[in-house]
Amino acid sequence: MPRRAPKKPAPELDLSAHFLVLADDPVFRDGKGFRSTPLLPRELFPGWPPGTPVELEVGSGKGLFLTHASGAAPDRLFLGVEISLGYARMTAGRLARAEAKNARIIAGDGNVLVRNLFPDACLEGIHVYFPDPWWKARHRKRRVLSDAFLAHAGRVLVPGGLLHVWTDVEEYFGEAMSAAAGTGLFSPPATVAERLAEHDLDYRTHFERRTRLAGQPVWRGLLERTTAPATVARIELPAVPPGAA
Ligand SMILES: C[S@@+](CC[C@H](N)C(=O)[O-])C[C@H]1O[C@@H](n2cnc3c(N)ncnc32)[C@H](O)[C@@H]1O
To answer: Are 150 and 112 a contacting pair, CB within 8 Å?
Structure first.
């Protein structure tokens, strides 16, 4: 299904407390490039006590999950990362309107956070809802739920942390569950029962809403991080990218 252009937030909304840009914000920088040192997700929420649980959503789209989850659990921190600048800005607008103090969105590639910036065992939850399926064989490598992403997802989750994967693509779901099992870092997936929506926006995400309203099935998996040691190490980024003087 094609997507409409993201709605621009009202110009009078102040997005500064909710919106970060991975390519620009000084917290992600080190000299001319990305910082090579690890970034604790909680550093992105100044003023919150150490030990406050942080959950990450990769591919937040229009931001329904972040808005609902941060409102429902005000003692937890919710960080979204969305590769489309327009959708990230739209999500920031939604969070600003909701006056969410415990949620922020980063415009950028979730892989950089999970593989390169976050240290081991720093997240209580990772949420990936309706990731783009990239149907063409030559585009498969763009799928978010790759073997490498899942190995790093296991690395950055604390033992007992939860990985939530929902999709309308059965084949992608099956492959992702096998790849997650292959890491040796997760319990077998538990299935999540479908809930009856009580109002028009009572869905986990906009894609869940549109899939269910179209009468299509949704596959939902919940995997718990075990205590097995991580199988990969954080990939440090060069502080100064090659070629930069
Ligand atoms: C099909 S949409 C689903 C959006 C939302 N999760 C939902 O269920 O409504 C997939 C989203 O993931 C984003 N995305 C794709 N690759 C990404 C990446 N590497 N990092 C962050 N976001 C990504 C896309 O821009 C898009 O907004």
So the answer is: no
pLDDT values of the chain reduced to their tens digit, one per residue, 245 residues: 556 789 899 999 999 999 999 999 999 998 778 899 999 999 999 999 999 999 999 999 999 999 999 999 999 999 999 999 999 999 999 999 999 999 999 999 999 999 999 999 999 999 999 999 999 999 999 999 999 999 999 999 999 999 999 999 999 999 999 999 999 999 999 989 999 999 999 999 999 999 999 999 999 999 999 999 999 999 998 776 666 65
Q: How far is CA 58 from CA 44, 132, 196, 197, 241, in A?
A: 16, 11, 25, 23, 25
Ligand 1 mean position, distance from CA 86 (Å)? 12
- C-beta of 57 in contact with ligand 1 (< 6 A): no
132 belongs to the catalytic site: yes
Q: Which residue is catalytic, options 30, 132, 200, 202?
A: 132
Question: Distance, CA 128 to ligand 1 centroid (Å)?
Answer: 8
How far does residue 243's CA lie from ligand 1's centre (Å)? 30
pTM: 0.96
Asked whether 15 and 94 are in contact (CB, 8 A), the reply is no
